[in-house]
Fold Signal peptidase I.
Amino acid sequence: MEPTILVGDWLWIDKLTYGARLPARWSDIPLINVFTWNTTLRQKDGRITWGYHRVGGARNPRVSDIIVFNSPERPDILLVKRVAGIISAGDTVTFNEKTYLSLKKILDNEYASSFVRKKKIYINGRADSSYRVKQNYYFVLGDNASESYDSRSFGYLPESSVVGKVDRVLFSIDPDCSKFCRFRFLRLFHHLL
């Protein structure tokens, strides 16, 4: 996300604007998650899921918002990217041979079975070229396009993966400077656009 976010920036993440995600298992609850340090309890907790639920927020992510989300390949890692496109819940997505692979993850996320046979797309066992999505999906891009791992690699991001909105830089420490000039005073409480 350079030059918007620099190495050494400590970010303020607003989890309320989009609505806070509720815990999906015991290890997601602060203080109670201490018990999951025990290997046996952690393994049992890994099999539990209460599903995805979110408290109502003030608004949904908009194009150009900087968001924090769980990586699609490694959910324990958080990524920061800018929203470039949105598919809203209830929108109809149209598939063809060229767009099928890039949009297949949406169908997989919504537990809709799909495959291609003889140049026809089958969704839930029927030849169909459109599907109405059940939740919001976001196409996210990094500001440094040449080196960014974003939706061009992993496809559309489901709303259930969004953690919150990056609002501002709390403070920043330059890892490449000597001891006396490490703190970046100009980035103190810097609002991100």
Q: What stands out?
A: The longest helix spans residues 100-109. The mean pLDDT is 88. The longest strand covers residues 162-172.
